[in-house]
Amino acid sequence: MIQLQALLNESLIRTKHVENAAAIGINEREICASTSGFYVPSENAINLIYAFYKNLLQVRKEGLYFKQKHYKCVRADEHSIYLKNADGGLIVVKTKAFILIATYRVGMYPSVCVEAVEKLADYLREKGS
């Protein structure tokens, strides 16, 4: 998944409005690629998969925990979940094969982060991923 790793760096990190990013393989239920130094515990990866398939309404109402921090839901639908807390935010977007995760911190523009992740997801969908 070296190509996916390069896509995360080129299309997300280069915007300077994405702090960290990763891709979870939906079928594998594990991280396929991530940016340097960004570790996503397997429990968090599985919880994000379930957020789309089983818990979307609950995420809308209660938010979710990611890496021991609580995030309030800003938007949640069958393709995207946008969350935020006092330190920044978490953008989660589903494609056919992957769940993309991107974080941003205070001082970064959430709208740029969202746009970058959604564009990468669209690209992967076009490629059948």
TrEMBL record:
<keyword id="KW-0009">Actin-binding</keyword>
<dbReference type="GO" id="GO:0005938">
    <property type="term" value="C:cell cortex"/>
</dbReference>
<dbReference type="Pfam" id="PF00235">
    <property type="entry name" value="Profilin"/>
</dbReference>
<dbReference type="GO" id="GO:0008289">
    <property type="term" value="F:lipid binding"/>
</dbReference>
<dbReference type="GO" id="GO:0007283">
    <property type="term" value="P:spermatogenesis"/>
</dbReference>
<keyword id="KW-0744">Spermatogenesis</keyword>
<comment type="similarity">
    <text>Belongs to the profilin family.</text>
</comment>
<dbReference type="InterPro" id="IPR005455">
    <property type="entry name" value="PFN_euk"/>
</dbReference>
<keyword id="KW-0446">Lipid-binding</keyword>
<dbReference type="GO" id="GO:0030154">
    <property type="term" value="P:cell differentiation"/>
</dbReference>
<keyword id="KW-0217">Developmental protein</keyword>
<keyword id="KW-0221">Differentiation</keyword>
<dbReference type="InterPro" id="IPR048278">
    <property type="entry name" value="PFN"/>
</dbReference>
<keyword id="KW-0963">Cytoplasm</keyword>
<dbReference type="GO" id="GO:0003785">
    <property type="term" value="F:actin monomer binding"/>
</dbReference>
<dbReference type="InterPro" id="IPR036140">
    <property type="entry name" value="PFN_sf"/>
</dbReference>
<protein>
    <recommendedName>
        <fullName>Profilin</fullName>
    </recommendedName>
</protein>
<comment type="function">
    <text>Involved in male fertility. Required for manchette development and acrosome biogenesis during spermiogenesis. Binds in vitro to phospholipids, including phosphatidylinositol 3-phosphate (PtdIns(3)P), phosphatidylinositol 4,5-bisphosphate (PtdIns(4,5)P2), phosphatidylinositol 4-phosphate (PtdIns(4)P) and phosphatidic acid (PA). Contrary to other profilin family members, does not bind to actin in vitro.</text>
</comment>
